[in-house]
Amino acid sequence: MVAGFHSFHWEGCELPDAELEQAHDELMAPTEGQAYLHAFRTLLHSGHTVAAGIALDHFQCSGALTRFGGESAVTQYGPDVLAVARELLRQPPTPEDEDTSAGANHASALNAMMNLAQAADVDLIADALALATNANVRSAACSAAATALAAAETPSPRLVAALGAVAFGESLDVDLEERTEALHAVFEADDPEATALLVRATESGERRMQVYGALGLTINGRFHDHRERVERLAATWPQDAEYPASLVREALTGFHSIYWLEARLDGDPELERAHAELMFPTGSEEAYHRAFRTLLHSGNPVAVGIAFDYFQSWQGLGHFLHEDEIEAYAPEVVARAWEVLGDPPSPPGLSPRTGEAANHISALNAIGARWPQPSDARRIAEVLERATSDEVRDKALWVAYGVLDTDETDEAEEAEEAEKADDGAAETTPDHTADGPDRADRDRLVDLVSRFVFDPSLSGHHETALRVLGEALGPEANPLLLRALASDNWDIHVQAAWRLSRSELIDEHRELLEETVEGWPVEVMSSAHDADLVRRAVFGGMHSIHWEDHRLADPDLYRAHRELRAPSGEETYHRALRTLLDSGQEVAVGIALDHWHHDKGLESHFGEQARAVDAPKVLARAREALHRPPSPTGAGHLSALNALRVARSWEPGDAALFTDILRQAADPEVRSCALYTVSGFLYETNTADGELISTLGALARDESLPVSLRTSALGSLRDAPGDAATEELVRATGCQELEVQAGAALGLTDEPRLADHRDLLTRLVASWPTEGAPWAAGLVRESLEARD
After folding, report:
1. 563 burial class (0-12, 13-18, 19+ CB within 10 angstroms)?
2. CA-CA distance, 149 to 187, in Å (whole number)?
3. Which residues of the chain have pLDDT under 70?
4. 482 in Cβ contact with 500 (< 8 Å)
5. Rounded to whole angstroms, how far apart are CA atoms 402 and 709?
6. Contact 404/472 with Cβ under 8 angstroms?
7. Each residue of 318-363: pLDDT tens digit?
8. In this structure, are residues 628 and 636 in contact, taking their beta carbons and an 8 Å threshold?
9. DSSP H or E stretch at residue 196
10. Around Cβ 168, how many Cβ atoms within 10 Å?
């Protein structure tokens, strides 16, 4: 069986036929997208419990399907997965055996339903909970139950009771973690039975149960009736009480606002009452809506700003109202926000925490990228022109994103309608997409956003501005992105490259991007993460380990290198690897060796076992590289040494080869790598070459070398077979450095060396400090004490 994720619950089980086994192999080590998805469907619809269970586990495992199908794959197969999961839940729980735990079929089904469960599934989940005998099934059932209860218009008393039995049933062998998982699922049920369970939890002797019970009482309209209970209980908890006690305390504090903390409502009782209702709802939706509109339509800038913050924040209206109710407020809120943006910026004292223009920041945040219309281009352009603070500019750029993005869609729709119209109708229909006022406003807005990329006086917003241009304008942004790519500002340059390397643009600009990225420094100080993303998009995977600053000029070798970085198939990969290995060029051979030995190279694409295909040629080229004089950077020797170390396939002549490398190496990294490789060589063979042992001893005693390298040499000596290294270890104990003494002494603690050199070790230990000694000194002491 190939390496990879097998499943959650079916590790030791066998599949009944070769077709299913082949499909499972494909899931564990995918070859390409369509094959992966076909294998998934084969297992899912096989009608075999183990096969279906494996498919459900892969569906849930880290979004496995999204690797080959994106979000659409999850959407596409979600209904099939849900149907199969329901079928497994209708089966009796599978019995426990040596390969699987009890109820593995239910565990896989419930796990897959974690984000898919619907209101119709409440009884199936309740049945599974009642039959569950282990933690895997109960935990998955609680997660699925929460999703099903949230989807149900009316609560399911049966499912709530089943969750209550897990949370409080004394007959079950259920740990505290499972009890709180069940209690957490109860949060989603808005009914008296669920509330009673949460109240009961607050009376528990277990603080974790108290915390979850209290948290549940802060949501779904329960808080007003139970706030006093929650306050009283929270006061008994220590300040460092475990999560989610902090969420309970936040609920008790209430959500004030985003940008108006410490601001005052000027003692207006009506506004203060309205704000209090939003912070701590009484449970009446009518009162809640009335309070929100009171603040929104008041003439008080602080009250209006608080209303904007409540509209936008998930801690605001989203904590009490459903999404569709919040959506219904959008026209009203957005209209009010544009009114506020026409007012002067508020003075710093009005909002001490936020400072100047808090009213504009709240208004822009409420509009965001979601609510503007194409007709708002002129208004947001004026806001950008007048803005005097960075936060206002940042918020305004996101509104501009929404304006331009919406405008592109509307223009496309208008153009489509125009094509359908007949010639006569077209003559009488106004052209809003040509050079009229709307187009002029849009062009003005694009120009303003572009200034945040190219105007040094507006620095600090280039990343957002490039995102607005690149994502909202589509192909229209290409000239601007190409201009940004030519920027002397490294961050702007990389951000533009990242935009141009997106999947929809990269093919059009690949040649330019390849030339650009090849010229980048190996070590990138700023924008390093984004630069790495561009490199991977343009060239595929890693370039190499020791040849990053080299480009292969030969077109055939360059194409072979590209194949290693982004393989089109396993056979073509090995053919490309051999092309580089047989090229006779040091750089090409070194790159091939790096891809062969490193876990981000060949192994990441085809698994560790794929190394065997080209191993003989790789080892021959590695030994040839080690026989050549080292390059100034030592890259050739580093690539070769790592390949030999990973291969663990030694030859008699390797001892002399390693001896020469250790004696000649001038680069500390090469010498360190050679010592690492020699350790494996000595440990895995019975070779105790006298010259190699003598060279290691000389390195260990060489006071001109770093202590870390000398102790590495001692580590290699400790791996030597038999008694070959004893003399060198004894000689090294005479060195002045405590780390070297301890490293050598550690090698003498193995039998029969310990018996022969116990007196020497005892004297050494007596001379060492008891505090601050190297780790090896502690092990030597322990060995002597154990012997005594």
Report:
1. buried
2. 9
3. 1-3, 62-75, 170-172, 406-437, 522, 788
4. yes
5. 59
6. yes
7. 877 888 899 999 999 999 999 999 999 999 999 999 999 999 999 9
8. yes
9. helix 192-202
10. 17
**pLDDT confidence of residue 430:** 36
CB 480 within 8 A of CB 467: no
Q: At what angle do helices 478-485 and 490-500 cross, to 10 degrees?
A: 140
Q: How would DSSP label each residue in 24-63?
A: HHHHHS--SHHHHHHHHHHHHTSS-HHHHHHHHHHHHGGG
Contact criterion met (CB below 8 Å) for 690 and 717: no
- Phi/psi region, residue 708 (left: phi>0; alpha: psi -120 to 50; beta: rest), is alpha
Pick the CATH number of 555-787 from 3.40.50.2300, 1.25.10.10, 3.40.50.300, 3.90.180.10: 1.25.10.10
Closest by CA to 405, choosing from 374, 365, 448, 443, is 374
Helices (H) and strands (E) in the chain, counts: 42, 0
The sign of the torsion formed by the CA atoms of 356, 358, 359, 363 equals positive
Query: What is the distance between the alpha carbons of residues 340 and 395, in angstroms, rounded to a whole number?
Result: 14
Q: Residue 163 is inside which H or E element, if any? A: helix 157-168
Angle CA 164–165–171, to nearest 5 = 150
Place of tokens 């965001």: 368
Nearest-angstrom CA–CA distance, 98 and 721: 41
Distances (CA, A) of 332 to 258, 280, 394: 20, 23, 23
Q: Say what the pLDDT of residue 61 is.
A: 73
Q: Which residue has the tokens 């490294």?
A: 490
Instruction: Dig out the tokens for 66 from the structure.
Output: 């999204």
How many CB atoms are located within 10 Å of the residue 607 CB?
A: 15
Give percent helix, percent strand, percent coil of the chain, each to the nearest 5: 70, 0, 30
Counting every residue written for the chain, the total comes to 788
- Angle made by CA atoms 636, 638, 641, in degrees to the nearest 5: 105
Distance between CA atoms of 60 and 143, rounded to whole angstroms? 13
- CB of 43 closer than 8 Å to CB of 55: yes
Residue 772: the pLDDT is 83
**The residue type at 613:** V
Structure tokens that stand for 284 in this block: 């009446």
Task: Please state the three-class secondary structure of 237-295 as a single string.
Answer: CCCCCCCCHHHHHHHHHCCCCCCCCCCCCCCCHHHHHHHHHHHCCCCCHHHHHHHHHHH
List CB contacts of 304: < 8 A, sequence separation 6 or more: 295, 296, 297, 298, 336, 340, 359, 362
Residue 393, token pair as written in the block: 């500019």
Q: What's at 345, amino acid-wise?
A: P
User: What tokens appear for 59 in the block?
Assistant: 């569906």
pLDDT value, residue 63: 52
Q: Supply the pLDDT for residue 75.
A: 60
551: phi then psi, degrees, rounded to nearest 5: -115, 135
Rounded Cα distance, 150 and 122, in Å: 11
* Residue ranges per structural domain of the chain: 1-102, 555-787
Contact predicate 742/751, CB 8 Å: no
Is the peptide bond between 281 and the residue preceding it cis, with omega within 30 degrees of 0? Answer: no
Phi/psi for 420 (5° steps) reads -75, -25
Q: Tokens 């060396």 sit at which residue?
A: 753
Q: Share the mean pLDDT of the chain.
A: 88
